[in-house]
# Entry
Amino acid sequence: MPAQIAINGIVIIVGNYGSGKTEVAINLAVDRQAAGQRVRVADLDLVNPYFRTREARRPLEALGIEMVLPPEGLLQADLPILVPQVAGLIRDPGDLAILDAGGDDVGATVLAALAEAFAKSEAPVRMLQVVNPFRPNTDSVEGCQAMRKAIESASHRQVTGWIGNAHMLDETTVEHIARGYALMQALVADSGLPLVCMTAAAALMPAIGALDVDCPMLAVRRQLVPPWQKPVPLQPEKSNG
Amino acid sequence: MPKVLMKGNEAIAEAAIRAGCLNYFAYPITPQSEVAEYLCWRLPEVNGVFLQGESEVAVAYMIFGAAGAGVRVFTTSSSPGISLMSEGISYLCGAELPAVFVNIMRGGPGLGGILPSQADYLQATKGIGHGDCRLLVMAPASVQEAAEMVMQAFPLAEKYRNPVMILGDGLIGQMMEPVEFPDHLRSEPSNKDGWASSGMDHRKSKTRNLVRSLFLDPEQLNRHNMDLRAKYERMKAEEVQYENFNTEGDYQALIVSYGTMSRVCKTAVNMLKEQGIEVGLIRPRTLFPFPEAAIGEAAAKVSCRAVLSVEMSMGQMVEDVERSVRGARPVQWYGKCGGEVPTPEEIIEVVKTTLASDLSRR
# Structure
């Protein structure tokens, strides 16, 4: 399987509610930082007050990944806060700026408000849709395409690629990832858009080699865990990228 | 249906449909708004109705009307919203109407916060409304259990002709877990002929059903209250549910904890076991009726020296735990609220401190 996830400039992570956007954004940032890219992450989830990127800000910052968040005093507010630094980040993303949008078309609406900043930026912009086929409504090509259309309409931007995030949390097996990969291939054929990567829990990665997966695999170390579990330490492997 | 990955709020919504409930009235509030969001598109698929009320007060009476007509109906809200519904809930109890209320608790008092809390325990189990009214209160600890309890709640509400409450903390609504549903579970109230105000056309009996909670004759009202009391006593005899964890062998302390808090406690119990300290745990699955006998018995075990009630509140369930233990062992409370959840490490520390202080008294 290809080893590297080829992204740079601005990468917007979208997807339906609960597809795993935030966990993907966090782990993508860690993966790319370990590969030598300088990564910044902006939490644009203005919709849901639970399980947001900001909960992983300390481990990410410890790895040198810069976070663009509302001020500390407003982090827990149940308010849609879009900080002006996001526009600056879009104008000048450096190696890689990952924008973690909120769920569904509702969460992607914020991107339309940033249209002016995107227009002024010369950096390449990718909008990647995260899909977990084990979530309601995205278990079929039609479901994923319907969500894509809704997100594109709300954000006034085109989705440019897919990220296959097939999992059932602690109950995930290699079989789930194989089934997810099959759906993603059907989605690629239907949409003509590339599959940027698939994901798997870091602990499952050794077993993935047996699958014939023709795309990069992103190792996921789960950060947004309930209080009776511990986040998996974010120890990036040495990368040759 | 194969397993899917769902948020607790989504699973609660789907479970209600599987239970044959096609009527949902609600007003949005964090952290449970996903129930309404899910039912917005899902209910029309099954010819159901979702109507957003102008407030929680209105919603409670929309529930009253639908329940009185003999259809399965439910609502979901969070702490401040439930407070607004409390008058209507008392009316439902008084009129002996079945309905399901889901409270995904957030921090209080007042507007409080939007993160998980268990600070509505006393409200749900003892003070849900004016008058001598009680709810059957169920407390799920996982997404799967939340779905199962919702499906159990409808027939229970009809069995007792009384509202049933699912009391979950914010985490139950917001976290995702794999969940599966039975394929077909649809049903209607089987006993509605005797009470529903649904017209005379299809009724076997020729007497009219009257939906009311007003009884001006004191003798009649007293008799009504005695009947209600008999129902609540029957709930205590027939509906207690709880889970035992690590209580087979000897243990030095007993933890009582419910909802997602109990899962943090289980992690602490497992960590303590590794350190050579055995702690038993009882998790009430129903909060009213409360598993008094089970807790009393578990606390009385010779090896057990102390009982700890761990809650995301400032000490509410601990009153029921004390009542269950009846002075046989010292009972302590430990908790946090407002969105802070006690960690396994904190619970371990409290268990150790409690055991040390108990030892020094001997």
User: Anything to note?
Assistant: Strands of chain A lie at 9-15, 39-44, 66-68, 96-101, 125-131, 161-164, 195-201, 217-220. Residues 9-220 of chain A form a domain with the Rossmann fold fold (CATH 3.40.50.300). Chain A has one domain: 9-220.
